[in-house]
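Give me structure tokens for this 132-residue protein.
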Amino acid sequence: MGLDWVKPGTEGLFPAGKSDKTGYVNASGQWIIEPQFSEVGGFSENISSFRNSSSWGLIGVDGMIISEAKWDEIKDFSGGIAVAKSNSGYFLLDKSGQTLNQEGFSQVCRLKDGYFLVEKEGKKRAFGQIGK
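Here you go.
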């Protein structure tokens, strides 16, 4: 199968499109994840975001869906955690797509060493990698 376009990639995989679908090719232009999505992000820590509608989900480098598309936005993984946004706030996701906080934060700022500065109802606090 040919391709219509290729974008800069990460981790050896490059977003590419054929017709109106997007997937990933390797540096040789071979399809690694067949074009099946409306849009995809770049890989970070072997995980990328995808969407088929207005919502985003997570896929692995093997093309397996890790988390269904239910987020308004998903930022890249770093230290095993990504930040996702929904209408109920910001959530921290682990690499299995599970949320680390039960209720959404109004703001999230990534700090060093896997910590986050989070805000909810005007109160700020530090949030560690494992939900502390």
